[in-house]
Amino acid sequence: MIPYGRQSVDDDDIEAVVKVLRGDWLTQGPAVEAFEDLLAAKVEARYAVSFANGTAALHAAAWAAGLGPGARLATSPLTFVASANCGHYVGADVQFVDIDPLTYNVDVAAVPHDIDALVAVHYAGLPVQLDQLRNRPSVVIEDAAHAIGARTADGPVGNCAHSDMCCFSFHPVKTVTTAEGGAVTTNDERLAERLRQFRHHGIVPRPDIGAWAYEVPEPGMNYRLTDVHAALGASQLTKLDRFVARRNVLAARYRELLSDLPVRLAPEGRADVTHGRHLYPIHVANRAAVFERLRAAGIGVQVHYVPVTHHPAYGNPTWSAREFPITESIYQGLLSLPMFPDLSDQDQEHVVRVLGESL
Ligand SMILES: *Cc1c(COP(=O)(O)O)cnc(C)c1O
Questions:
Q1: Is residue 51 lining ligand 1, measured as CB closer than 6 Å?
Q2: Plot region of 126 (φ>0 → left; ψ -120 to 50 → alpha; else → beta)
Q3: Which pLDDT band holds residue 146 (cuts at 50, 70, 90)?
Q4: To test the ligand 1 pocket, which listed residue (123, 143, 302, 339) has its Cβ within 8 A of the most ligand atoms?
Q5: Which among 236, 230, 275 has a CA at the least distance from the CA of 8?
Q6: Which atom of ligand 1 is least distant from the CA of 278?
Q7: What pLDDT, on the 0 to 100 scale, is given for residue 313?
Q8: Which of 226, 80, 67 is nearest to 147 (CA)?
């Protein structure tokens, strides 16, 4: 089976994890701190706060920004449902803004002026041009689950050049893995403090009362990453540039290999952008049949995504088609081909051959 995405774990990653297992700390300790320092340096942000997973990171970001009941949080319909669920967790009113057919990201010109927060999803790894937001909401949170290692003219995704916080996921299909894991980067010291507070039950130390004393002004969660996971993450981060470069080589090869097939490719983005290439989506006619044939041939294609606005929790397909026509048209025939650094040239050629036969 060739999956659509998978981790690249080498002996040095395994040794880094074993070293932690033999040590004194298993849950959050020095390896978490080292991982956070490395991540902050890599994406050129002042602070990085790690979490148990990317969904927890998004929840924490929404909480740290002070979003709650009455707040209007908008995101893209073409994303993983976690981008919207974070608004639901804090009691905000979750809304959607249709995407731009030239990027498959939220249309930066269409974000309404009365939104309090935008969760900007860098779909497939192509950064949202946040410098071009026509109406800038008071809170901008990036969902960069697809985009670690991506860059714009303003620097690496994660440096929060045009956002308050940037959220990452380190799930094994993402570019860098900790097994389960996530992080939020920010340049705002107060937000970093709130993120750490939320991760650890909402606890605020009270050294003015005593070394033992603490208080919980607002309940938080137990969303900590462990040292075991962080050790894997730190080892993986040293390979980020190589992972993203290989993903971009595979994308260029797909472009070439697919040029004679009746498929439509997803947007490449501007020339001054480095694409993170988490996914390689294309469009095919008769998707259901092509999907079945590829799966039957051991090729783990996937659809990213069923629009969030189709789900009963947020809407339904009829309403979604009326309100978000671009998302609906892009969803037609959308199919993700295998994309991960250890995908060999030969396996990639095999995928394209079977795809050609399936069309
Ligand atoms: C993977 C993903 C998440 C959630 O990350 P987890 O680590 O799996 O919780 C959130 N948003 C997007 C766009 C994702 O792809």
A1: no
A2: beta
A3: very high
A4: 143
A5: 236
A6: 15
A7: 98
A8: 80
Question: What is d(CA 115, CA 111) in angstroms, rounded to the nearest whole number?
Answer: 8
Q: What is the pLDDT of residues 47-71, one digit of tens each?
A: 999 999 999 999 999 999 999 999 9
CA of 213 from ligand 1 middle (Å) equals 36
- Which pTM value belongs to this model? 0.98
Residue 106: closest CA among 90, 138, 84, 86: 84
Mean pLDDT of 12-29: 96
φ/ψ region of 276 (left if φ > 0, alpha if ψ in -120 to 50, else beta) reads alpha
CA-closest candidate to residue 187, choices 60, 47, 41: 47
Beta pairing partners, 72: 93
- What are the residues whose beta carbons fall under 8 Å from the beta carbon of 120, sequence distance 6 or more? 75, 76, 105, 106, 128, 130, 140, 141, 142, 143, 163
Burial classification of residue 153, based on how many CB atoms lie within 10 Å of its CB (0-12 exposed, 13-18 middle, 19 or more buried): exposed
Q: Map tokens 């979750």 to a residue.
A: 94
Give the atom of ligand 1 at the shortest distance from the alpha carbon of 82: 10
Closest Cα partner for 331 from 264, 253, 261? 264
Does 142 sit in the ligand 1 pocket, CB within 6 Å?
no
CA distances to 52, 77, 307 from 325, in Å:
35, 11, 11
**Separation of 247 CA from ligand 1 center, angstroms?**
19
**CA atoms in the 13 A half-sphere facing the CB of 158:** 31
Query: Is the CB of residue 125 below 6 angstroms from any atom belonging to ligand 1?
Result: no
